[in-house]
Amino acid sequence: MTTREDEEKEIEASKAPLMDHLVELRTRLIKALAAFFLAAFVCFFFARQIYNILTWPYIWVAGAENSKFIYTGLLEYFVVQLKLSLFGAAFISFPVVATQIYMFVAPGLYRNEKQAFLPYLIATPIFFVLGACVVYFAVWPMLARFSLSMQQLGGPGQATIELLPKVEDYLSLMMKLMLAFGIAFQLPVILTLLGRVGIITSDQLKSKRRYFIVIAFVIAAVLTPPDVLSQMSLALPLIILYEGSVFSVRLVEKRAAAARAAEAAAAKPAE
């Protein structure tokens, strides 16, 4: 009896009625939501400190003496702290949520499928954090420098134009950029997974390289401020990630070809 048949029998034995699957799904959802809300509860008590950390890129550019944030609504800063706690909880609870998803799906997967799924599950948060770091250390200082450069000192016939960021606007834009970059940095994970299942090939990716370069700059133009440095800060990483995806898909193809060759060599004596 082959290993494949053993795995099929194992999966068949693990099958459960629909109601059992729904109970299992409910249990996994409760654990994932509990982890999320627990993380949100903890983050709320440290929301002020977390917000101060998020303002560091602006302070690096403007200087501590020129850094001032305002809020114009009575509960605006409180709402910002709530949003910040939910935003932080999404980061902190992701390992637990992803683990619950994997534990729910894993019984229906073959052993080799489980081994194939795990690396992508691990790579997803890593690349998301990399995208967030690019925003924090590169894009946001450029955005702050660009915004501050538009200020105007008062003089004869001129009004004083001074940047006074609102706490909610600052956090909203920071979250949007981190989310956009985090999703964009999933490119290697998605393309490699598609290559593994045979939907795309490395040759197809290489042939579409010129189109993706244009798309990368279009995405950068939409998501970043209208200056060259900010746009390049997203476009160049996207292009590098695309080239890395081509290499990763080619590596997956070589491994798949080697596995098929090994299976064919093992099957010959049996014939």
Give a brief outline of the structure:
The chain is an all-alpha fold and 271 residues long. Helices cover 79% and strands 0% of the residues.
Descriptive notes:
The protein is mainly alpha-helical and 271 residues long. 79% of the residues lie in helices and 0% in strands. The protein is built from eleven helices and no strands. The chain has helices at 3-13, 18-45, 47-54, 56-62, 76-105, 111-148, 167-184, 187-196, 202-207, 209-223, 228-270. Helix 4 packs parallel to helix 6. It starts with a helix and ends with a helix.
Q: Specify the overall morphology.
A: flat
Give average pLDDT, whole number.
83
Q: Which structural category fits the helices and strands?
A: mainly alpha
Number of helices: 11
The Cα radius of gyration reads 25 Å
What pattern of helices and strands is seen along the backbone?
HHHHHHHHHHH
The biggest beta sheet is recorded as: none
Helix content: over 70%
Uncertain runs are none
Give the DSSP E fraction (strand runs of 2 or more residues).
under 5%
- What distance lies between the first and last C-alpha atoms, to the nearest angstrom? 15 Å
Tell how many strands the DSSP assignment holds.
Answer: 0
